[in-house]
Design brief:
With 523 residues, the chain is mainly alpha-helical. The protein contains 18 helices and four strands. It has a two-stranded antiparallel ribbon with strand order 1-2. A two-stranded antiparallel sheet has the order 3-4. Bound molecules: farnesyl diphosphate, potassium ion and zinc ion.
Length: 523
């Protein structure tokens, strides 16, 4: 594995040099940024400053009409001549998005670079409603109630809301979902599952506080995880259920957040008489077997690569040791990057989940969220000056540490931001969505916002100081850096909170829960 991003390579790669088209006027323009924090120029300031640079890049910027680079609003120039049902659907999808990408969608408030504003308050209103009772047509989703809680709480948190007021209700709900033999099910008396347990544990971390943490029966959780651990290294998602890379990721998150002991119970399917196997044994090799001939990751060995599983694989590996060593040890990174990069389409700017499929807002996280992880793994391995991780989880207005140069980025942040803000916002009732024409829902709201956070920030890894608490796994610290991109197309007020690239919740919430359990003796 020899891919390394050179810190000096800061130029945007000239993959495609578009002509610029100037659209008539935007439906409405933005008000200038009111931010008093100087480091981040507003779009207007930036557009003036960058106009000559952008002209060199094939983009013209003028203060009047909105200009969107052809790359992000015109059908691709190079096309496969073979027409198939897939190519027809793809063309129709792009066609339906053109007004949104080209600053012509009604009811969105576009800035001068043809990017809509984040309708923050509308999304907050939408997600607050989804924390209330659901109408009867949601009955089929009963077993996913923990997921709905996590999506709404995480979405609200990324939008800047304090969700600690939900603590009491959440604790009561979570207690009813917990099983005596460990783990959380979708509801009372439902079989515990790693996915619903993951969602509840993260929700409890989001509302925070001792009462929330103490709602978890960690001893039962440990025994249940031992029952799910398989001799080949992976995890079943429920006792006797399927084994897949979701299980590997969810288990790693639960083990590290709750500081679960790694020892196996003697009745675990993975227990060995020499007593050497533990909860993490063989996990990296299990993930390795999920990388496919395409370079992407499948749910189980020998299946089709899908973006959701790429995130799970990277997330799992990033938690079982220092990601800078573990990720390249188990995955072919150049081939994975090639596959992930192929998921980002133009002109849409968003990501698809798999080969020959359509872009969808949720892959802004499942695929988009892989890039910060890989970028951090490929960043300078020698530690940055001893720096404190940001504690507040708020979006940084200044970088936590002053790096000589940010590593070059591996995806088009501008494209992703254009897709998210232009195509994924429901402009009427709020909430975020798969694509124009689809309704908003908590799942897409959460993962579209997580993707926006990935596009707006950059992370770097630094080793833990001697005196910093560390668990059985010697993990490094994730530092949030403000990404000072060459092409900034959104305003300061459109920035969402930084999240931890693996746990997908703000650093502070993850750190508080982890420190609480690290400080505990025994269960
Ligand atoms: C295909 O759906 C989707 C999958 C094969 C995997 C979906 C899994 C997740 C989104 C999350 C898993 C992660 C955890 C942590 C539980 P599709 O055929 O409807 O969509 P597509 O056409 O975009 O592939
Ligand atoms: K989909
Ligand atoms: Zn989706």
């Amino acid at each position: 594995m020899s891919v390394r991003i050179k810190a000096s390579q800061r130029r945007v790669r000239a993959v495609f040099q578009p002509k610029t088209r100037t659209t008539p006027t935007a439906p409405s323009s933005t008000s200038p940024s009111t931010s008093s924090t100087p480091p981040i120029p507003t779009t207007q300031e930036k557009s003036k400053r960058q106009s000559s640079k952008m002209q060199r890049m094939g983009r013209t910027v003028d203060s009047g009409p909105v200009s969107v680079p052809d790359l992000f609003c015109q059908k691709p120039v190079i096309r496969d001549a073979l027409e198939t049902p897939t190519s027809v659907t793809q063309d129709e999808t792009v066609e339906s998005m053109v007004p949104n990408l080209n600053a012509r969608a009604p009811r969105l408030r576009y800035n001068d670079l043809g990017v809509p504003r984040l309708e923050r308050q509308k999304h907050v209103n939408f997600l607050q409603k989804t924390m209330g009772p659901f109408p009867s047509q949601y009955l089929h989703a009963d077993a996913s109630r923990p997921w709905y809680l996590y999506w709404s709480l995480a979405g609200l948190t990324m939008l800047g809301e304090d969700v600690s007021s939900y603590r009491e209700r959440l604790v009561e709900t979570a207690r009813a979902m917990q099983n005596d033999t460990g783990g959380f099910g979708g509801g009372g008396k439902q079989t515990p599952h790693l996915a619903t347990t993951y969602a509840i544990v993260l929700s409890l971390a989001l509302v925070g506080g001792e009462e929330a943490y103490e709602a978890i029966d960690r001893r039962a959780m440990w025994k249940w995880l031992c029952a799910l651990k398989q001799p080949d290294g992976g995890f079943q998602v429920s006792v006797g259920g399927e084994e897949d890379v979701r299980g590997a990721y969810c288990a790693s998150v639960i083990i590290t957040l709750l500081n679960i002991p790694l020892d196996l119970t003697t009745d675990s399917p993975a227990w060995t008489p020499d007593g050497r196997a533990n909860l993490l044994s063989g996990l990296g090799d299990y993930v390795r077997r999920c990388q496919t001939y395409e370079g992407g990751i499948s749910g189980q060995p020998n299946a089709e690569a899908h973006g959701a599983y790429a995130f799970c694989a990277l997330g799992c590996l990033a938690l079982i040791g220092d990601p800078r060593e573990v990720v390249p040890r188990y995955l072919d990174i150049p081939r994975l990057i090639a596959w992930l990069s192929s998921r980002q389409y133009a002109p849409e700017g968003g990501f698809s989940g798999r080969t020959n499929k359509l872009v969808d807002g949720c892959y802004s996280h499942w695929v988009g969220g892989c890039f910060p992880l890989i970028e951090a793994c490929l960043g300078p391995i020698d530690d940055a000056p001893s720096a404190q991780p940001r504690q507040d989880g708020q979006t940084a207005t200044t970088p936590s540490i002053d790096l000589p140069a940010a590593p070059e980025t591996l995806f088009s942040r501008e494209g992703l931001v254009r897709y998210i803000l232009g195509c994924c916002q429901n402009p009427e009732k709020g909430g975020l969505r798969d694509k124009p024409g689809k309704g908003p829902d908590p799942y897409h709201s959460c993962y579209v916002l997580a993707g926006l956070s990935s596009a707006q920030h950059q992370w770097q890894l630094a080793s833990r100081g001697e005196d910093e608490p560390s668990a059985a796994i010697d993990d490094p610290v994730w530092l949030v850096l403000r990404h000072l991109d060459d092409v900034r197309v959104y305003e300061q007020e459109d920035v969402v909170r930084a999240i931890h690239p693996v746990y997908a919740i703000p650093h502070k919430h993850q750190q508080d829960m982890r420190s609480y359990f690290l400080a505990k003796e025994g269960f």
